[in-house]
């Protein structure tokens, strides 16, 4: 059974199509394209520039975190604490501004530092103490959320100066301001992963960490960097989120970890490490957000929408992996 | 030669025969119509270059892959080997080339996985499992391996022993061994051969794969040579000679196996003084000079790999001193060792050397990314050139640079691991079992290369369990036992006897001589 | 061991008078402080489509409000109402739902906010697109919506709860609270008002501790049990602040065989409480009728669209509920909280 | 002969030491130690009643963690289990309200649990989609489906006989605690002494090697998931029969709590390592911590932070212990 499906498929596939067509990302993009056409035909408000840009605004927070998460999952790791870091950073943004009296720009910088530190702490546990990433970040998931609750004492901070809402609510050249942030981050992350020695190191770690270490690659440093980056981006995401919703709450970002992981995995990054691209993550991000939006506009209710999303996650992974089973040894 | 008689006398069908087996993988025809048979009580050797298709053939016989065409016949009856379990039920036990073990489980459980002894109610009988494992260990005269050890903590040599135990534990009628001795020292090989002879006497048919010709002459009755997936010849060992086999294998003549040229030796590149790393590296002192090849001999578990890995920064030293070209250094990580010009070709290429799912190109550039990158950005063209030079230089048999490295045959994988380090232009090269699982042609190639590299002024520290290789290649031989360097021989003083005696320690060497 | 509880939202507390009967003090007249839609199309008397985005869907309470809305839609005849929302009470998700409905183009949005401030930008966006916005159950900042239908004023609930507790447990006894989370605005407000009212009218009541239990049945049960075990005889009462926590607390008291010794007072829906009320383990359950709340919200929305409810109005006609009063500038009060007892609980089914 | 006895004499104290230094022992010490420390602060914590309530209220987590541990040891993961427990509790409760025989209401969640999980296992094993993807998808499907079907209507009016959790054996041991102990012991025994039990470790440790030993990794995966479904069914039953209301929604974050119990219990997320005794002890420890924090008057705002720190300490202690063992 398994041996049968193992060998002939890629052979057949190889003959009928060039390799890049069979990549998970390409397949997913095609599926997305078809879905867009169908949903667009069902509802004339869906495929409007306004709506699409607005969806971009709404998905920026998850998108920002999904980029470093792609790095992390490519190395075979995972970071479950991102949602809690968002909560902690949101609280500290408000707290440092209101209670410490930091000027807001300083408070923002402070928030980013806190995010990076939280991620760095994960990285230290993972590289120095060799705690498996899932375990380390499950523990800090509780810890960081707890800190957010403890520090905030359930208080929210509001009444930020008007300029601060620029990040989360305004447009720049007709495009939501935070979407620029996301776009820049995507380009940087994409190039870093695809073109640099750093990116190659991540793939090598994910495919065989021991061999990567024995090849003299800076394994621990790379890991430390990606977990720190993950915390940093969660911090940035918190700033964007606070600016968009104009208040801070200690329960911000709850459940982000699953949204982010679903995005990355849907984008074709293997949870076992070694395989994945930023481009795939971007398609995954667009897919989830636009499906939710398109279905809602077409009159599908929330509970049915998440059923559809779950099914799409499984089916698209299945279709893509059937057509693309060419990597792996 | 009683066996030859046995062969002739039995009119019964051979225990195992394969007819016209064909198998192709994407881009490779691994086997193109191979037939041969093994009689009851026969040891049949399979010989061929790396990638000739030996492992593929035995994997078909073991039910791992289905053949594209052809038949496997056991005791005259065709068998359908769809799954490994079918092969086991047909009485076939296999030691695979890749050590396929359960790292988290104990030796005993690894040995008996899938056919554990049962007590009442289908309950696993742990006591019997341990007991039987101890018996097997005793039969192989292995005293330094405990049945309760977790396999993940064992050295490669010991893992190989576990694989052997596992195959022996199955009481098979057909025993297949794919390079079982690649990670073993002579001492173990002798014990293994004793067992094989006993099995032979019991009528077990054995298929034996090795790149060590002397072993084939020592144990095999007949030998089948494969080349590029095709059956070339089957010969009775008694009727052939090494030179003939080599020629059949590679299709041309190979010159000297150990083309050692003596060179002028330069200043010290590596100086180690009182190096300590518990539990296995104890007050080691040694020097390797430019242009010199130092051989490091020792038994399995004597701590040679540990020493190499301490020098390389995998397990940083806890005491003592390392000097590279006279500069005292403290090496904390392989990354640092690499920048100091140290290269280490590890003994376990599957887990330490090669990133199996990545392409040949990516593997080649892995240790030399700095050489093909500018400001952190990889220059794709330079990378491709680096890799294709490597493929050419080492004659790696691959369908393209974008081939997944893990799909190459074992020997070709080894060439890539070696090649990736040389791309980094190191000053000190540590080779841990550099020719394990490499065919004679490629081995000669690697030995020639070692000579050339030394001539260019590279300092080489070579760990090898193959005594002839150590003796043939080294300018100096160091012997390790239980974490210490116990003897040092100059090239002219090093012989099988002197080095062997030092490896064993006194009483065991006495036993060996007897 | 509890310090002053201020609801964590920095709003002033406003305890009612101690004397019984007077559920809500005459509110100081406040000018209208709601927002207004820009260029809303005139749909007076015409059919309209509404969407209702509650805190979350799939819980009994919001099912009941939905039912009220459907009842009202039927009664009015020219309203199509639909309920949709997140499956967990997450403000982030709720914002996305509202945003989607703004895009798809509805005439009016009804909401129950997970966070009063965070929801404001998206509601303002709705107003700016000419969509009418009315809140119920949980308010937003006033200028982000036109009207808010207030089920019962915080201080009214607080008074009912504390009075019941003092009455059932005794004036000088100790009690603890099981709430959802400290950040849930309504619960936080109620607790703050309860504190203020207790200080003023039942100063001898002892306030032991407040624990979080989310909206989780079993967690609420565990937390209530822990409180019972921790305080032993000292504990004479438990408040359940959510419709989940109250039956779970009652169950904990029942399991500990402390019915009659530990009073359970709380907000809850009648069906879940019937076994405990019938067994005399719980004497009074405080709640407004959520069906009426949904009903009223729909009528208010219709009145707004029809131009019958304008800033400055003092009351609004709400079908079978009769005339509802405007309080606090832009809030419409449903009425005094309702107290279910053994006598009347069988008459309700939700 | 003398040589072997000598080795034995040497080995057994070492083995004892090893057993004492295991994750299970560490957790057991933590459970008892914490009880004593909290008891010193507030003796009421040590009351039989309280200790038994801690177990009673959290037994369903421990039972679910038993199945989860098997899944993780086999090299997979399941994040849909919280949703499934919500669904199964609703199935059971609906049947009870509809008047099905009590035994049916008790068996139904087990059967449905096995079916749903075996189905997921089959998708993972035969279509070869990573477990995290399948179960992440299934989490949404079950969660949305449950709300879609029930509309979130609470199930009330459950018959008294339905409440399995109210039964006390010998007037002392509450049923959930009994089931937790039985499930743990049974699973521990089965995973140690049965051939299929060992295949879980084999497949999780090295699937390819397992295949060559005649084990069918796909079949093992389906088996593990079916078993996990069974334990999820038992957990759902305990969850549903605890109170007189069933919420018909998915318990928030339950999957995370269950996974936490497994990994704190020493189950390696990489597969191949762990025991269910560890995960049950960890579930008890986590529940005990939650209760202890209330008893020790830790400010409720800081409870979660303290919980996080304690979990982190347990995990790091385990890692350091393992490292010391490895070097000894
Ligand atoms: N799973 C696979 N997929 C693709 N190609 C394969 C696979 N397994 C083997 N091959 C190819 O089949 C050929 C025969 O390989 P095989 O492993 O049988 O060689 P071998 O004779 O055992 O060599 P060695 O002595 O190096 O072990 C090689 O070219 C190899 O690259
Ligand atoms: N006394 C010992 N205590 C602990 N482990 C030991 C001992 N002796 C041997 N070992 C095991 O053997 C390994 C050391 O073998 P190492 O690979 O360093 O030696 P080697 O001489 O290179 O042998 P090989 O030829 O097998 O590579 C250690 O990793 C350890 O697991
Ligand atoms: Mg081979
Ligand atoms: Mg070695």
TrEMBL record, chain A:
The keyword Cell membrane applies. Keywords: Cell inner membrane, Cell membrane, Membrane, Transmembrane, Transmembrane helix, Transport. Its main location: membrane. Signal peptide: none annotated. The chain crosses the membrane at residues 21-42, 62-95, 102-121, 172-193, 224-246, 258-284, 304-323. GO terms for cellular component: plasma membrane. It comes from the Bacteria. It is found in: Cell membrane. The keyword Hydrolase does not apply. It is a multi-pass membrane protein. GO terms for molecular function: transmembrane transporter activity. The complex is composed of two ATP-binding proteins (LsrA), two transmembrane proteins (LsrC and LsrD) and a solute-binding protein (LsrB). Part of the ABC transporter complex LsrABCD involved in autoinducer 2 (AI-2) import. Probably responsible for the translocation of the substrate across the membrane. PANTHER family: ABC TRANSPORTER PERMEASE PROTEIN YPHD-RELATED-RELATED (PTHR32196), AUTOINDUCER 2 IMPORT SYSTEM PERMEASE PROTEIN LSRD (PTHR32196:SF71). This is Autoinducer 2 import system permease protein LsrD.
Automatic annotation (TrEMBL), chain B:
It is a peripheral membrane protein. It is found in: Cell membrane. Residues 16-253, 252-507 form the ABC transporter domain. Its main location: membrane. Keywords: ATP-binding, Cell membrane, Membrane, Nucleotide-binding, Repeat, Sugar transport, Translocase, Transport. Gene3D superfamilies: P-loop containing nucleotide triphosphate hydrolases (3.40.50.300). InterPro entries: AAA+_ATPase, ABC_carbohydrate_import_ATPase, ABC_transporter-like_ATP-bd, ABC_transporter-like_CS, P-loop_NTPase. GO terms for molecular function: ATP binding; ATP hydrolysis activity. PROSITE patterns: ABC_TRANSPORTER_1, ABC_TRANSPORTER_2. GO terms for cellular component: plasma membrane. Involved in beta-(1-->2)glucan export. Transmembrane domains (TMD) form a pore in the inner membrane and the ATP-binding domain (NBD) is responsible for energy generation. Belongs to the ABC transporter superfamily. This is Sugar ABC transporter ATP-binding protein. It comes from Bradyrhizobium cytisi.
From TrEMBL, chain D:
The chain crosses the membrane at residues 25-42, 54-73, 79-97, 104-123, 129-149, 169-191, 220-241, 262-295, 301-320. InterPro entries: ABC_transp_permease. Its main location: membrane. One of its GO terms (cellular component) is plasma membrane. It is found in: Cell membrane. CDD domains: TM_PBP1_transp_AraH_like (cd06579). Keywords: Cell inner membrane, Cell membrane, Membrane, Transmembrane, Transmembrane helix, Transport. It is a multi-pass membrane protein. GO terms for molecular function: transmembrane transporter activity. The complex is composed of two ATP-binding proteins (LsrA), two transmembrane proteins (LsrC and LsrD) and a solute-binding protein (LsrB). Part of the ABC transporter complex LsrABCD involved in autoinducer 2 (AI-2) import. Probably responsible for the translocation of the substrate across the membrane. This is Autoinducer 2 import system permease protein LsrC. The lineage of its organism: Bacteria, Pseudomonadati, Pseudomonadota, Alphaproteobacteria, Hyphomicrobiales.
């Amino acid at each position: 059974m398994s041996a049968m499906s193992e060998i002939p498929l890629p052979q057949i596939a190889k003959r009928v199509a060039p390799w890049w067509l069979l990549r998970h990302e390409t397949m997913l993009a095609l599926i997305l394209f078809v879905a867009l056409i169908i949903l667009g035909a069902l509802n004339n408000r869906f495929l409007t520039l306004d709506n699409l840009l607005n969806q971009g605004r709404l998905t920026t927070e998850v998108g920002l975190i999904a980029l470093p998460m792609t790095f992390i999952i490519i190395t075979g790791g995972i970071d479950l604490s991102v949602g809690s870091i968002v909560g902690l950073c949101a609280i500290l943004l408000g707290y440092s501004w209101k209670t410490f009296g930091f000027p807001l720009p300083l408070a923002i910088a402070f928030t980013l530092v806190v995010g990076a530190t939280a991620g760095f702490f994960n990285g230290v546990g993972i590289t120095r103490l060799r705690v498996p990433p899932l375990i380390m970040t499950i523990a800090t998931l509780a810890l960081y959320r707890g800190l957010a609750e403890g520090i905030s004492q359930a208080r929210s901070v509001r009444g930020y100066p008007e300029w601060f809402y620029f990040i989360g609510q305004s447009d720049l050249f007709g495009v939501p301001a935070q979407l620029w942030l996301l776009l820049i981050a995507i380009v940087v992350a994409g190039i870093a992963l695809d073109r640099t020695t750093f990116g190659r190191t991540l793939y090598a770690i994910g495919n065989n960490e021991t061999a990567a270490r024995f090849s003299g690659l800076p394994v621990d440093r790379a890991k430390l960097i990606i977990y720190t980056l993950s915390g940093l981006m969660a911090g940035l995401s918190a700033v964007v989120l606070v600016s968009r919703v104009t208040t801070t709450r200690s329960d911000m970002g709850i459940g982000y970890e699953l949204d982010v992981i679903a995005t990355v995995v849907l984008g074709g990054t293997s949870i076992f490490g070694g395989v994945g691209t930023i481009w795939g993550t971007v398609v995954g991000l667009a897919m989830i957000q636009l499906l939710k939006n398109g279905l809602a506009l077409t009159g599908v209710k929330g509970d049915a929408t998440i059923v559809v999303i779950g099914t799409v996650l499984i089916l698209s992974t299945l279709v893509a992996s059937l057509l693309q089973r060419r990597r792996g040894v | 030669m009683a066996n030859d008689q046995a062969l002739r006398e039995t009119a019964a069908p051979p225990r195992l025969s394969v007819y016209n087996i064909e198998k192709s993988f994407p881009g490779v025809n691994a086997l193109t119509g191979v037939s041969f048979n093994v009689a009851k009580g026969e040891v049949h050797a399979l010989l061929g270059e790396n990638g000739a298709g030996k492992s593929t053939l035995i994997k078909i016989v073991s039910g791992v892959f289905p053949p594209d065409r052809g038949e496997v016949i056991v005791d005259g009856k065709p068998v359908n080997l769809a799954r490994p379990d079918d092969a086991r039920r047909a009485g076939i036990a296999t030691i695979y080339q890749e050590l396929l073990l359960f790292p988290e489980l104990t030796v005993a459980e690894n040995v008996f996985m899938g056919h554990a002894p049962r007590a009442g109610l289908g309950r696993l009988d742990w006591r019997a499992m341990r007991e039987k494992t101890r018996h097997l260990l005793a039969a192989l005269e292995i005293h330094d391996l405990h049945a309760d050890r977790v396999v993940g903590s064992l050295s490669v040599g010991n893992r190989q022993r576990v694989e052997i135990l596992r195959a022996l534990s199955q009481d098979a009628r057909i025993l297949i061994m794919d390079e079982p001795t690649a990670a073993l020292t002579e001492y173990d090989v002798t014990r293994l051969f004793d067992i094989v002879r006993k099995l032979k006497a019991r009528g077990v048919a054995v298929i034996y794969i090795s790149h060590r010709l002397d072993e084939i002459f020592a144990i095999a009755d007949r030998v089948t040579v494969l080349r590029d997936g095709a059956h070339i010849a089957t010969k009775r060992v008694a009727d052939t000679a090494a030179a003939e086999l080599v020629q059949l294998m590679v299709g041309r003549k190979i010159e000297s196996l150990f083309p050692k040229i003596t060179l002028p030796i330069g200043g010290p590149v590596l100086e180690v003084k009182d190096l300590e790393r518990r539990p296995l590296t104890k007050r080691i002192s040694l020097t390797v000079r430019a242009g010199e090849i130092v051989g490091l001999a020792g038994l399995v578990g004597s701590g040679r790999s540990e020493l190499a890995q301490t020098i390389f920064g995998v397990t940083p030293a806890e005491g003592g001193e390392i000097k590279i070209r006279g500069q005292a250094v403290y090496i904390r990580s392989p990354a640092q060792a690499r920048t100091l010009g140290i290269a280490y070709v590890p003994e376990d290429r599957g887990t330490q050397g090669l990133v199996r799912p990545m392409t040949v190109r990516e593997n080649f550039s892995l240790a030399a990314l700095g050489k093909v990158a500018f400001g952190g950005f990889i220059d794709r063209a330079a990378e491709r050139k680096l890799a294709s030079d490597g493929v050419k230089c080492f004659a790696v048999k691959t369908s393209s640079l974008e081939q997944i490295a893990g799909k190459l045959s074992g020997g070709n994988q080894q060439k890539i691991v070696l090649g990736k380090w040389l791309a980094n232009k190191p000053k000190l090269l540590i080779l841990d079992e550099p020719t394990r699982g490499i065919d004679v042609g490629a081995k000669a190639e690697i030995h020639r290369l070692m000579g050339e590299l030394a001539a260019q002024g590279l300092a080489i520290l070579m760990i090898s369990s193959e005594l002839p290789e150590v003796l043939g290649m080294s300018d100096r031989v160091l012997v390790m036992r239980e974490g210490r360097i116990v003897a040092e021989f100059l090239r002219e003083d090093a012989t099988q006897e002197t080095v062997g005696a030092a490896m064993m320690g006194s009483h065991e060497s006495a036993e060996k001589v007897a | 061991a509890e310090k002053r509880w201020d609801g964590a939202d920095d709003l002033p507390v406003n305890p009612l008078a101690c004397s019984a009967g007077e559920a809500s003090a005459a509110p100081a007249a406040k000018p209208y402080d709601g927002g207004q839609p820009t260029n809303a199309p005139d749909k007076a008397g015409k059919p309209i489509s509404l969407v209702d985005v509650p805190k979350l869907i799939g819980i009994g309470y919001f099912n009941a409000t939905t039912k009220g809305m459907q009842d009202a839609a039927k009664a009015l005849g020219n309203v199509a109402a639909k309920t949709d929302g997140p499956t967990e009470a997450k403000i982030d998700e709720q914002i996305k739902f509202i945003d989607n409905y703004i895009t798809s183009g509805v005439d009016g949005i009804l909401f129950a906010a997970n966070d009063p401030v965070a929801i404001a930008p998206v509601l303002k966006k709705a107003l700016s697109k000419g969509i009418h916005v009315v809140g119920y159950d949980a308010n937003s900042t006033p200028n982000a919506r036109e009207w808010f239908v207030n089920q019962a004023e915080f201080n009214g609930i607080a008074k009912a709860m504390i009075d019941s507790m003092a009455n059932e447990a005794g004036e000088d006894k100790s009690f603890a609270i099981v709430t959802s989370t400290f950040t849930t605005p309504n619960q936080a407000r109620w607790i703050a008002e309860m504190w203020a009212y207790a200080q003023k009218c039942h100063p001898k009541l002892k306030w032991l501790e407040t624990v979080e239990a989310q909206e989780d049945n079993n967690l609420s049960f565990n937390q209530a049990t822990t409180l019972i075990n921790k305080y032993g005889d000292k504990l004479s009462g438990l408040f359940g602040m959510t419709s989940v926590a109250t039956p779970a607390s009652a169950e904990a008291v029942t399991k500990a065989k402390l019915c009659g010794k530990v009073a359970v007072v709380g907000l809850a829906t009648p069906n879940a409480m019937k076994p405990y009320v019938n067994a005399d383990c719980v004497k009074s359950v405080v709640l407004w009728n959520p069906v009426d709340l949904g009903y009223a919200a729909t009528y208010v929305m219709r009145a707004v669209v029809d131009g019958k409810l304008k800033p400055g109005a003092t009351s609004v006609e709400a079908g079978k509920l009769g005339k509802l009063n405007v309080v606090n500038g832009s809030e419409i009060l449903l009425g005094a909280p309702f107290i279910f007892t053994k006598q009347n609980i069988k008459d309700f089914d939700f | 002969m003398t040589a072997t006895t000598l080795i034995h004499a040497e080995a057994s104290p070492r083995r004892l030491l090893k057993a004492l230094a295991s994750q299970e022992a560490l957790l057991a010490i933590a459970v008892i130690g914490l009880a004593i420390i909290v008891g010193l602060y507030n003796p009421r914590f040590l009351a039989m009643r309280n200790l038994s309530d801690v177990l009673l209220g959290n037994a369903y987590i421990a039972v679910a963690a038993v199945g989860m541990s098997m899944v993780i040891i086999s090299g997979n993961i399941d994040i849909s289990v919280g949703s499934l427990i919500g669904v199964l509790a609703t199935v059971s409760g609906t049947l009870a309200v509809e008047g099905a025989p009590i035994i049916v209401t008790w068996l139904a969640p087990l059967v449905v649990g096995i079916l749903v999980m075996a189905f997921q296992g089959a998708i993972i094993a035969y279509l070869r989609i990573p477990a995290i993807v399948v179960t992440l998808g299934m989490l949404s499907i079950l969660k949305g489906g449950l709300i879609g079907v029930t509309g979130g209507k609470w199930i009330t009016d459950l018959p008294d006989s339905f409440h399995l959790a109210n039964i006390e054996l010998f007037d002392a041991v509450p049923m959930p605690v009994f089931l937790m102990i039985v499930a743990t012991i049974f699973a521990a025994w089965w995973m140690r002494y049965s051939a299929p039990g060992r295949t879980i470790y084999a497949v999780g440790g090295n699937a390819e090697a397992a295949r060559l030993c005649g084990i069918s990794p796909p079949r093992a995966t389906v088996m593990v998931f079916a078993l996990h479904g069974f334990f999820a069914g038992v957990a759902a039953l305990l969850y549903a029969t605890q109170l007189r209301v069933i919420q018909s929604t998915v318990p928030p974050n339950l999957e995370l709590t269950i996974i936490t119990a497994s990994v704190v219990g020493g189950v390696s997320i990489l597969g191949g390592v762990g025991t269910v005794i560890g995960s049950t002890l960890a579930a008890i420890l986590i529940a005990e911590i939650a209760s202890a924090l209330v008893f020790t008057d830790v400010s409720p705002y800081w409870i979660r932070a303290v919980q996080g720190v304690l979990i982190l300490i347990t995990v790091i202690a385990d890692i350091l212990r393992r490292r010391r063992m490895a070097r000894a």
